[in-house]
Design brief:
binds manganese (II) ion; alpha+beta; 16% helix; 6 helices
């Protein structure tokens, strides 16, 4: 049987050091996973279990060249576009109810990513107790660098994570400040959804998120991964 419209192409992220692509199935994102960021958003990090939202796989923007900023268009419908710099986890396998001590066995590798956020819309919807989607899950809201295989990087439990806008440091933290570790995120997600190969997880952003405008250049760093650079156009 034929498809009645053209089926969507699989989104593939380059795998560093290979000619291969990592196929993205779903994008899960962790909310408020650094205590200081939870506080700046007006919440108490001590009382909150992890929670997740999603973006469509085609929100991905491949940022393949660490030396040349990848152009990301300023989205429609917002006057307050924020950067959220994050470690991204790429899953090679999945399952349900994955125990914490087995969770990292399902990781294919890691990447640097940006959870771009229409903060004005996110806040407005939150104020009205409506879904966040329009603030988070929009076109080209998920810039990402090459996926690095686990064998190249090992797992990330600590290390610098920072973001600059036009050369000025904005976000500057350590991965060890995550409230819920990567393993715990996988476990919690797998209790709510069956996870599959190709799923990726944006593991949350440190404090000092903030606005960007057209022309801004965003540079990002995580110890153990190449820097990523994006220009808002
Ligand atoms: Mn985020």
């Amino acid at each position: 049987m034929a498809y009645v419209v053209t089926p969507p192409a699989t989104v593939g992220v380059p795998v560093n050091g290979t000619g291969d692509l990592f196929p993205v199935r779903r994008i899960f994102c962790v909310g408020r996973n650094y205590a200081a960021h939870a506080r700046e958003m007006g919440h108490d990090p001590d009382r909150e279990p992890p929670f997740f939202f999603t973006k469509p796989a085609d929100a991905i923007v491949i940022c393949a060249d660490p030396n040349n900023p990848t152009k990301v268009p300023y989205p429609s419908a917002t006057k307050n576009l924020h950067h959220e710099m994050e470690l991204v986890v790429a899953m090679k396998s999945g399952g349900t109810d994955i125990p914490v001590d087995k969770a990292l066995d399902h990781v294919f590798g890691y990447a640097v990513g940006l959870d771009m956020t229409r903060r004005d819309l996110q806040r407005a919807m939150g104020d009205e107790k409506k879904p966040w989607e329009i603030g988070k899950s929009f076109d080209r809201s998920a810039p990402i660098g090459a996926v690095h295989r686990l064998a190249q990087t090992g797992h990330f439990t600590q290390g610098a994570i920072w973001l600059k806008v036009n050369g000025a440091i904005k976000q500057n933290a350590n991965l060890n400040q995550m409230i819920w570790s990567v393993a715990e995120q996988i476990t919690k997600l797998s209790e709510a959804n069956e996870l599959f190969p190709g799923d990726i997880i944006y593991s949350g952003t440190p404090e000092n998120v903030g606005p960007v405008v057209r022309g801004d250049v965003i540079e990002m760093h995580i110890d153990g991964l190449p820097n990523l650079s994006v220009k808002i156009v």
